[in-house]
Amino acid sequence: MADKHILREWVLEALEELNGRGTVVEVSQVVWRRHESDLRAAGSLFYTWQYDIRWAAQQLRNEGLLRKTAPRSRDPWSLP
Q: Which domain of life is it from (predicted)?
């Protein structure tokens, strides 16, 4: 069963599909399309994944794997 930590990989995977840049909605659409069955089988993550994907993006920013944005920014997420 998946937990929120897998979302880090899925965000990177989605951004690669989106040519390195995408809004939270675009990234979420790719994650849902690719991993709907995983999310449905993930227990409570199914109910929190759209919140947790933002946590995953922040973790990736902290690690330098995602470009930093201003706090509360609506800028697209992008690979460095």
A: Bacteria
For residue 11, the enclosing domain spans 6-66
Residue 1 in any domain: the answer is no
d(CA 15, CA 27): 7
The total number of structural domains in the chain stands at 1
Measured distance CA(66)–CA(42) in Å, rounded = 25
Backbone angles phi, psi at 29, to 5 degrees: -65, -40
**pLDDT tens digits, one per residue of 11-25:** 999 999 999 999 999
pTM: 0.91
